[in-house]
Amino acid sequence: MPLLLFAITALLGIGILFFIWKQQQGLTEQRIRFDERQFETLKILQDTLQSGIQETRKNVKESLMDYSNELGKRVEALTLTTDQRLKEINQQVEKRLTTGFEKTTETFGDVIKRLALIDVAQQRITELSNNVISLQEILNDKRSRGTFGEVQLSALIRNVIPESNFAFQHTFSNGKRADCVLFLPEPTGNIAIDAKFPLENFRQLMEASLPEAQHRQVEKQFKIDIRKHIQDIAERYIIPGETADGAVMFIPAEAVFAEIHARFPDLVDASHRARVWMVSPTTMMAVLTTARAVLKDDATRQQLDIIQKHLVMLSGDFRRFQDRMDKLSTHIKQANQDVEDVHTSAKKITQRFVQIEKVELDNIHQKIELIPQPNIDTQE
């Protein structure tokens, strides 16, 4: 029994080993076939890849050629368009440059003209400066400055007031002589005008570089001078029964007048109390305009009797005109009535002629009926 089991076991082991060997042989053959197939597959795949790569290279090459040709065409078209645009831009630039040069030339011409005008103006300014210097030299002298104020006052008055209503260098009963007197009707009366020009103290007053103490001294002296001018005018040129109850102090410098009213109200009050009215060239024009209105009103009052007489005569003329218009209206009404009567008569006459014509036509028709008619049957 043990030998049999051993033999069986040995046989089984040999069978198993043989089976294993067979299996290994089969696996080896299968591996060899697999390797061969894999090699063939790899070869086929390699061939396919090579073919695909060549085809792809061919397609890429053709695509690159087409793209290169298309790109060349586009670059050429872009070059043409760019050249055309550059030509247009060049033309526009040349045109604008030409226009700009023309405008620049015109501007330069205007500038040259204006420079010429500036040269002329400069010459005039130089002449004006010389004149101002001359005027300053004139104004530095008190006598010349007084003459300047009188000339300015004369120009203002002669432009507004009639010659018969003013006089220059008029002497009053007290022996004082005023620069100008306005002869105005009552109750205003004659108004004396005196030109004063306190220029020296005013110039010093306007000096900003003066020390405070000296500036106060100049200001005090300026006020003293103005008060003295006011007092002198009030004493010399306000004469009861001969002049008005006030006089005019003409200051021919607007700056002096403005400085007095702006900084020294006490001087203005003093002039009002003294009944001396300070005026500048501007306010003097207003005073003269008022005086002219007073003269015009007085002339109107003097002519009231003549105006009233002419109004009475005009009233009589108007009454006669009214009577004549009434008569003319009566004649017109009568003429209208006569025209209507004549028109009525004409209508009646026309109707009579119509009736006459109608009667004549009726007679003609009767005569035609009385004429014997021919017998047609007898004639036949």
Give a structural overview.
With 380 residues, the protein is of the alpha/beta class. The chain has a domain at 128-308: Trna Endonuclease, Chain: A, domain 1 (3-Layer(aba) Sandwich), CATH 3.40.1350. The chain has nine helices and five strands. It has helices at 2-140, 142-160, 199-205, 212-237, 254-263, 265-273, 281-302, 304-370, 376-379; strands at residues 166-171, 177-182, 191-195, 247-250, 276-279. A hairpin with an 8-residue loop joins strand 2 (177-182) and strand 3. The longest helix is centred in the N-terminal third of the chain and has 139 residues, at 2-140.
Helix/strand layout:
Layout: H1 2-140, H2 142-160, E1 166-171, E2 177-182, E3 191-195, H3 199-205, H4 212-237, E4 247-250, H5 254-263, H6 265-273, E5 276-279, H7 281-302, H8 304-370, H9 376-379
Parallel strand pairs: 3-4, 4-5
Antiparallel strand pairs: 1-2, 2-3
CATH class of one domain: Alpha Beta
Query: Which structural category do the helix and sheet elements fall into?
Result: alpha/beta
Q: Mind describing the biggest β-sheet?
A: 5 strands, mixed
The percentage helix is: over 70%
CATH topological fold name of one domain = Trna Endonuclease, Chain: A, domain 1
SSE run? HHEEEHHEHHEHHH
Distance between the termini: 196 Å
Q: Widest sheet: strand order?
A: 1-2-3-4-5
In the CATH hierarchy, the architecture of one domain is 3-Layer(aba) Sandwich
Query: Could you name the ranges where pLDDT drops below 50 across 5 or more consecutive residues?
Result: 131-146, 376-380
Morphology call:
elongated
Radius of gyration: 67 Å
The number of strands is: 5
The percentage of residues in β strands lies in 5-15%
Overall residue-averaged pLDDT value:
77
**Number of DSSP helical runs:** 9
